[in-house]
Design a protein that fits this description.
seven-stranded mixed sheet, alpha/beta
């Protein structure tokens, strides 16, 4: 199906209050949706934490950018031993009924072992916490118990009202949906927020219209969106549901250097079959987003990557 059909539907949905939720609804029809969300979010949260050297025996504070429809990552951060967790999003998409469906997988033996190996809590402590969490009746009770602060919609100033410093900042396939201007302010604030702490961001660099699903366009490269001018892309995808910034890992590396953030590592990966894009068709509007683009092929080198920074 041509990607413009999905883009047109998303433009219409974006004009309604329930648009984003309706756009998200089809993925929930999978019978294993909630189990998969728990497994994915918990695994990715622990994986990113592994890249950091944070002493959780001290009072440590974590910031998650992009809560989305799942609170699993914030809960995992608290169970690791962060004394305060701040999780933020543009829209308040959390539902306690959804949380209850996802958190029932928390006491699996595999998860217990995985988190116990990294947490300041013993297995017995964690099992007790699991039992308390599963009995919770509201987000208010849960937030009080785990010292989680949820801000949606958020602003940078609202974050700083809760905490001016963070030991850990993380996001999972979120930054590709943030505009370059906001990314610039986010990285500037990150430099101020981190005091010998870490920021770990996993970013997806591909055209989301090539993602699997009912509306997938199987005839395009995963970097198809690099072919178009800013105005053309904005016409089709410049809405709150479909927006992607079309930026490669190089842009984020440049931002980190500009804001004097130490780049510990960048781990690039290609996680799906590649459909190569002729570099000659990459639009000039895309190229001018970079200060020092030495090789144009770098724009399509990775489909996803994890950027590890230190303040």
């Amino acid at each position: 199906m041509d990607w413009r059909i999905k883009a047109a539907l998303q433009k219409v949905l974006a004009t309604t209050q329930l648009g984003d939720k309706l756009n998200h609804l089809p993925v929930t029809f999978n019978a294993k949706y909630h189990e998969n969300v728990f497994l994915y979010q918990s695994h990715e949260c622990l994986r990113k934490f592994d890249y950091c050297n944070i002493d959780l025996r001290k009072d440590a504070t974590a910031l998650e950018i992009g809560t989305g429809y799942s609170l699993v990552s914030a809960v995992v951060l608290s169970l690791l031993g962060f004394k305060k967790v701040v999780t933020v999003d543009l829209t308040p998409d959390l539902r306690f009924s959804t949380f209850k469906k996802q958190i029932k997988y928390i006491d699996s033996q595999n998860f217990l072992k995985a988190i116990a190996s990294k947490s300041i809590y013993t297995e017995a402590d964690l099992q007790y916490k699991f039992s308390v969490i599963k009995k919770m009746g509201s987000f208010n009770d849960l937030f009080d118990y785990l010292n989680i602060n949820y801000i949606a919609p958020y602003s940078f100033d609202a974050i700083e009202e809760i905490s001016a410093k963070f030991d850990y900042i993380g996001s999972q396939v979120v930054l590709e949906h943030v505009s370059p201007d906001v990314l610039g302010e986010m990285f500037r604030r990150t430099r101020k927020w981190l005091s010998n702490g870490y920021a770990v961001h996993t970013i997806n660099f591909i055209d989301h219209f090539a993602n699997p699903g009912f509306f997938q366009d199987k005839g395009i490269s995963e970097f198809n969106f690099l072919r178009y001018s800013d105005n053309y892309w904005k016409f089709w995808s410049g809405n709150s549901i479909a927006y992607t910034n079309r930026l490669s890992y190089i842009f984020y590396m440049e931002l980190a250097k500009k804001n004097n953030l130490e780049i510990i590592d960048f781990i690039g990966e290609n996680y799906r079959q590649r459909v190569e894009l002729d570099q000659k068709v990459i639009h000039g509007d895309v190229l001018k987003k970079y200060v020092n683009l030495i090789k144009i092929e770098e724009l399509t080198r990775y489909q996803r990557g994890t950027l590890i920074l230190k303040g």
